[in-house]
Write a structure and sequence with these properties.
Blueprint lengths: L1 E8 L2 E8 L3 E2 L5 E2 L2 E8 L9 E5 L8 H4 L16 E5 L31 H14 L7 E5 L1 H12 L6 E5 L7 H15 L13 H15 L2 H8 L11 H16 L2 H12 L11 H5 L5 E7 L7 H10 L3 E6 L7 H4 L1 H12 L5
Parallel strand pairs: 6-7, 6-8, 8-9, 9-10, 10-11
Antiparallel strand pairs: 1-2, 2-5, 3-4, 5-7
Length: 353
């Protein structure tokens, strides 16, 4: 039996799809059932050719109109009056999809740390189930920034006829050694919190705060911190503006996210490599991607630098590359609405190659 439930949350309609059949994960482990939280905006047209599916990044949720308001909404380039827009929460997250905080149907209790390891491909598998449930026959445009781009590329390879176009931002074909090292440092911070494996929603909160602090250093960069967090008071010897900012960002994430999910999802990011099980070289796999693709890099991104997007564009045969000069680093893909929206609009309307 498969069904979905809808409810109002923060004035946005969040829906839940329950897939009662088991889902075999890439590791060989099995989820006895799957729950997927998702949002939709607009309507599927009669031809079924107006779907824009947006894959979210690490700590985002499925309410893309809330966290990407400059791109999604009435009058924006991704307009619900024209498109049927879908965004689904990823497996392992804490925003409604199956993850550490959801109930294990076998035990009747939350999974917590017993939730199995998931990969990017597992997340895409779950979203394929949702797409079929929604009656979607093809995706006109599949969008993903950062970790969302990992999902988009995998989906394009797993179902090439289903995905028509790609928009990839600040992302790469495989998790880099730099990214894996950052995630390992973040997990060490979580593991240093002796509560992180406890069976409670706030387990590992202090470790998560430290992990977020590490992450913030990579989402922005030296220039951003110097420009925005330098103290004008040169007499200080403590309580610096930059310290307050990092503490604030850590507290902010702890209030809305879960340490066990964060640990699990960074592991999933480390698993990302489109060549795994397909070829010996990333280039060879990228060459098989036949969808038209718009690829966007950010000059100041130190987490997933433009060289990774240029690599994609060089080896994907039907790609267009655009690089924006932004001071916001990796977070630029969430902030630079105006220029990103214009580039996407130009590409969709044929004004970019």
């Amino acid at each position: 039996m498969q069904h979905f439930i809808s409810e109002k949350q923060d004035l946005a309609l969040i829906q839940y799809y329950h897939h009662a059949a088991p889902l075999k994960l890439e590791s060989g482990q099995i989820l006895p059932a799957v729950q997927i939280a998702y949002h939709t905006y607009g309507r599927l047209n009669a031809a079924g050719d107006n779907v824009i599916w947006i894959c979210h990044a690490l700590t985002a949720n499925s309410d893309v109109a809330e966290w990407w308001p400059g791109l999604v909404g009435q009058g924006k380039v991704i307009n619900p009056e024209r498109y049927f827009i879908v965004c689904a929460n990823i497996l392992g997250s804490c925003y409604g999809s199956s993850g550490p905080l959801t109930e294990n149907p076998i035990t009747g209790k939350p999974y917590y740390c017993s939730f199995p390891m998931v990969t990017i491909r597992d997340m895409v598998q779950a979203h394929m189930l949702l797409a079929r449930h929604l009656g979607i026959r093809q995706i006109y445009l599949l969008v993903g920034g950062s970790m969302g781009g990992y999902q988009a590329m995998e989906w394009a390879l797993m179902e090439p006829a289903f995905v028509q176009r790609l928009f990839l931002l600040a992302t790469g074909a495989a998790e880099s050694a730099w990214g894996i090292a950052i995630h390992t440092a973040q997990r060490l911070a979580i593991e240093a919190d002796s509560t992180w494996k406890d069976d409670r929603p706030d387990a590992g909160a202090k470790g998560l705060k430290a992990a977020r602090a590490i992450g913030m250093l990579t989402y922005r960069n030296y220039q951003t911190f110097v420009r925005t967090q330098t103290d004008p008071d040169f007499s200080k010897i403590d309580h610096f503006k930059a310290s307050s900012y990092i503490l604030y960002q850590g507290d902010k994430l702890v209030k809305r996210f879960n340490a066990q999910s964060y640990w699990l999802l960074t592991k999933a990011m480390d698993s990302h490599n489109i060549a795994r099980g397909r070829a010996d070289r990333l280039e060879d796999v990228l060459a098989t991607i036949q969808q038209k693709a718009l690829i966007l890099g950010i000059t100041s991104d130190i987490l997933c630098p433009p060289e990774e997007q240029r690599f994609l564009a060089k080896h994907m045969p039907y790609s267009a590359y655009y690089e924006i000069d932004s001071p916001y680093g990796h977070d630029g893909f969430l902030i630079e609405f105006d220029i990103i929206g214009q580039v996407l609009r130009d590409w969709l309307e044929g004004r970019l190659p």
